Amino acid sequence: MILRCQMAVIAILLALVASSCGSLTAQPGAAPTRPDQVLSFEVLYAQNCSGCHGPNGSGGAAFPVADPVYLATIDDATLRKMIAEGVPNSLMPAFAQSAGGMLTDQQVDAIVQGMRRHWARPGVLAGAAPPPYSAPVPGDPQRGAGVYITFCASCHGPEGKGTAKASSIVDGSYLGVVSNQELRTAVICGRPDLNAPDWRSDVPGRAMTDQEISDVVAWLVSKRPQFPGQPYPGQATGGSQ
Fold this sequence. Notes:
Blueprint: H1 2-25, H2 41-48, H3 50-53, H4 68-73, H5 76-85, H6 105-119, H7 141-151, H8 153-156, H9 172-175, H10 180-189, H11 210-222
Helix pairs in contact: 2-6, 5-6, 7-11, 10-11
């Protein structure tokens, strides 16, 4: 009697296992998608970009990529190259498999297209021609000092060390982790997440010229310390630390 009961229990368990296995194999659509086959912009952005650029592209540790002015100044080829290969001398890593990252070329394209589809806004520049994304000629830091006073000092202070309106932009730790291009982008596009105006609105009715943008960026670059992250350059070396 006991043996019969045990056999019945085993038969029931085997039937349950067979049933559950059958239900899994009968639904091929439920199989998980391979990571390199994911092409959803929402998924790709959330997994690869949101940690620095914010969950909605509105900024965080890095520049707000959902800014329509930014998207109006950068072309697809440049945007794709930045995502794929990263930005030298900055915290932006390479994401393409060809550059050591995890994303396929199709996934990089999906991110670029998704950014345009979700955040670009036609007519955002109101007919104004944006300055070149990259500097056409090197700037002059000496001229840039005067440009800074004209366009930037009212918020960032006469030496760039910050005021109650805006933070320091000559801090060595900051300048040590942003590239020259990132500085230029910030001057052109502003920082909407920080209420900083773009190149057209620093001085009412007086947009910055291409050369003025290049010059003030050169002035900022001249403030970058040789060894960023070392706040005590005059401290004697040796001895106990």
